[in-house]
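ok new one. same drill as before - structure tokens go in, u give me an amino acid for every spot. 256 of them this time. try not to just spam alanines like last time pls lmao
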């Protein structure tokens, strides 16, 4: 991923005109990028044991995903599985969760998204169980706007195709959702956008819970949220790369 990929180039050149002193990341294969995404989101709290999947649709229609057997903080590039659009494994002896159908249905239904993330994070999971939409109290919780639907018709786990299709239909064209009594779902057009959304959702949920415990406060006004949420459609310069470098420092073998 180049530092300008999936960014509003005009805004990027306006606010970051200098080229920088060195490359922000080494050249990464698509599988290495997905492995890094797993590690990055684990660090953001998307870390319920072996639960959850990230799927990334490629330009040829294949889909990259993490294997069922491994936790997000141990997966490496060589572990990433390639699927066809029906979910058949093309190049690995690892398995995928039976719940992969939710991802496949979302990719089929939404031509605007190439990344689907599902897991059971701690803080968004609290609000999913409360079946409440967390207010936004600070800038970091406002990067992706305020609308956050709750899918609250629990029909079972997502290996049931009818259940996952109902969730897809309920999501509509939303960018994310809380899944009542279950977890969280985030989609995006690319890794940069999906990472920002997943990190922002967990931050927003944590801050809202902390503010509630502290006795409450006045949330940000909607007009302020709209001003702050410019990174979601335009991209957040340098953030994906910075978090990827952090994971490379922790474990350089993630890209192998």
């Amino acid at each position: 991923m180049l530092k300008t990929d999936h960014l509003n180039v005009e805004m990027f050149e306006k606010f970051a005109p200098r080229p920088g002193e060195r490359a922000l990341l080494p050249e990464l294969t698509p599988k290495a990028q997905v492995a890094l995404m797993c590690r990055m989101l684990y660090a953001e709290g998307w870390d319920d044991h072996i639960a959850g999947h990230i799927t990334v649709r490629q330009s040829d229609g294949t889909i990259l995903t993490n294997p069922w057997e491994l936790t997000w903080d141990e997966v490496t590039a060589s572990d990433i599985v390639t699927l066809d659009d029906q979910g058949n494994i093309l190049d690995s002896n690892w398995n995928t969760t039976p719940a992969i159908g939710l991802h496949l249905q979302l990719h089929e239904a939404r031509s605007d998204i190439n990344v689907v993330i599902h897991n059971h994070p701690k803080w968004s999971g609290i609000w999913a169980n409360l079946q409440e939409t967390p207010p936004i109290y600070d800038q970091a919780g406002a990067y992706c706007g305020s609308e956050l639907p709750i899918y609250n018709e629990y029909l079972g786990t997502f290996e049931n195709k009818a259940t996952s299709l109902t969730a897809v239909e309920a999501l509509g064209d939303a960018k994310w959702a809380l899944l009542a009594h279950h977890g969280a779902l985030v989609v995006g057009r690319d890794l940069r956008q999906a990472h920002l959304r997943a990190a922002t959702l967990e931050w927003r949920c944590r801050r809202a819970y902390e503010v509630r415990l502290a006795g409450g406060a006045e949330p940000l006004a909607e007009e302020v949220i709209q001003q702050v949420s410019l990174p979601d459609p335009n991209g957040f310069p340098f953030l994906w790369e910075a978090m990827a470098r952090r994971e490379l420092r922790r474990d350089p073998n993630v890209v192998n």
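Strands lie at 53-57, 63-65, 81-83, 115-119, 150-151, 176-179, 183-188. and btw The two ends are 17 Å apart (CA to CA).
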